[in-house]
Amino acid sequence: MHPLNRKLPLILSQISTVLLALAPITNAYSASLCHAFEEALQVPQLNIDNEQAPLEINADEAESVTKDTMIFRGDVEMIRGNQTLSSDKVRYTRSNQRVQADGNIIYREPDMSLFGSSADVNIDTYEGDINDANVRFPLLHARAGADTIVLEGRETIRLINGSYTTCDVDDNSWSLSSRHIKLDRAKGVGTAYHATLRVKNVPVFYTPYISFPLSDKRKSGFLAPSFGSFGVSGTEILTPYYWNIAPNYDATITPRYLEKRGLQLQNEFRYLKPRHHGIVEAEYLASDNLFNDDRSFLRLQHDSAFSNQWRGSLLFAEVSDANYFEDLGDSLSITAITHLERRADLTYNGNWGNLLARVQDYQTINDAIPASGRPYKRLPQLLYSSSLPSYLDIDSQVRGEWVQFDRTDSVTASRFDVQPTLSDYYGRSWGFFQPKLSLRHTQYDLDNQAAGIGNSRTRTLPISSLDGGLFFDKPLSWGKRAFIHTLEPRLFYLYVPFDNQDDIPTFDTGINDFTFDQMFRDNRFTGGDRVGDANQLTLAVTSRLIDDESGNELARLAIGQIRYFRDRDVTLNGGAVETNNNSDFVTLLDITPNNRWRISGEWQWDPDTRQSNKTIASLQYRPTPDRGLNLSYRSRDESVVAIDGSLVLEQADVSFFWPLSSRWRAVGRWNYSLDRSQILESFAGLEYEQCCWRLSLVRREFINNVNNFGDETNTSFLMQLELKGLTSIGSPIDTLLENGILDYRR
Question: CATH number for the 2-219 domain, one of 2.60.450.10, 3.40.50.300, 3.30.40.10, 2.40.128.50?
Answer without folding.
Answer: 2.60.450.10
